[in-house]
Amino acid sequence: MKQCAFLTLDEPGDFVIDDEHAIAPLRDLGWQVSTVSWRQTRRAWSEFDIVIIRSTWDYWNDVPAFLDTLERINGETRLANRLELVRWNLAKTYMIDLQHRGVGTVPTLWADSLEPDFPASYQLKLGVDEIVVKPVVGANGEDAYRVSKADTAVRIQSIAARFQKRDCMIQPFMPSIIKEGEYSLFFFAGQYSHAILKKPAQAEFRSQEERGAEIRAMLPHEKLLQRAQQAMATLSPSPLYARIDFIRDAADDFLVMELELIEPSLYLRMDPRAPGRFAASIEQWVFPG
Questions:
Q1: DSSP code of residue 47
Q2: Average pLDDT for residues 98-126, to the nearest whole number?
Q3: What is the mean pLDDT of residues 107-113?
Q4: How far is CA 105 from CA 36, 97, 124, 255, 261, in A?
Q5: How far apart are CA 263 and CA 271, in angstroms?
Q6: What secondary structure letter does DSSP report for 10?
Q7: pLDDT, tens digit, 9 for 90 and up, residues 142-200
Q8: Which residue has the higher pLDDT, 10 or 254?
Q9: Could you give the residue ranges of the DSSP H alpha helices within the chain?
Q10: Which in 5, 64, 173, 189 has the greatest CB count within 10 A?
Q11: Pairing of strands 130-135, 182-188
C-alpha cells in the first residue's frame, strides 16, 4: 500500500484541523495516511512515498529545527510542498518578488526594528491614518497589530518593544477586511479547487478561525479568480497545494495579502468535492502521467 504522511504539530490545542477529510478519498486510491509530528524521530521518513506539510502550526517558534526536519525528509523521500518553495515562502518578503512579477499586493514597507514613536512616519509614507504591523516570519495573526493615530503612547511603545531588532512589515489597514472580509482561494496541483470568505469577529481585524472569524464557502468573482490564477502562474516549481488570501481595495480590485505554500489550512470541509480533489492531486504528484 502507498504510504503518505501528514505533518502536524505535537499539541493541536484550539486549532481547527480538517485534514482528516482527505483520508477516506486517499484510502480509496490505495493510500494509507499517517498523521505524524514534524518533531518525531521514531519512523524513518523513507517509509513514506510522500510527506506533506500540513498543520505544523508551531514551526515559527523554532524555524531552524523545522528546516532541519524538512531537509532530512527531502533527502529520503518526496516532500510537498517542495523545499525550495518552503524556503522562499518562510519570510513574507516573498511579497517583494510577487510585486516584481506583476502580482498586485497590499502596499508594504519593511523594517528591521521599530522605534517607540514609529507610527507617524509609516502612516505618512503610506498615506493612511491606520496601519497594520506584522512580523516577517510568523503565522496565525500572532503579533499582528492594528495601529491608529488614536492609540496611546503606552500602547505604541508596547508594540515597538515587540519589534526591537525584529524584522517586520507595515501595511495600510484595509477597511474592507471589516466590511467584507478576506478571500481565500485554494489550488491543488495548479488547478483552482474552492474558495472561502473569512470575516473577522467583532472588534477584531484578524481573519483566523481560531480568533472567532466567520467562515463561509463562496464562488469567487471572475476578477478575483483571474488575480489568483495570475499569482499561481508566477510560481516555479508549481506547488502541490496553495492558498492565496486577497482583500478588496478602494478601486474594486483584489490585492494579495498572503500567498501560503507551507502549512495553510485547506478548509477541505467547506466544499464536499475538495477532499477528493486534494487526494487526486497527491496521486498525480507522486505518479505523474
A1: G
A2: 95
A3: 96
A4: 35, 10, 19, 5, 16
A5: 19
A6: S
A7: 788 999 988 899 999 999 999 998 999 999 999 999 999 999 999 999 999 999 999 98
A8: 254
A9: 23-28, 63-76, 83-90, 94-100, 119-126, 153-162, 176-179, 222-232, 274-286
A10: 5
A11: unpaired
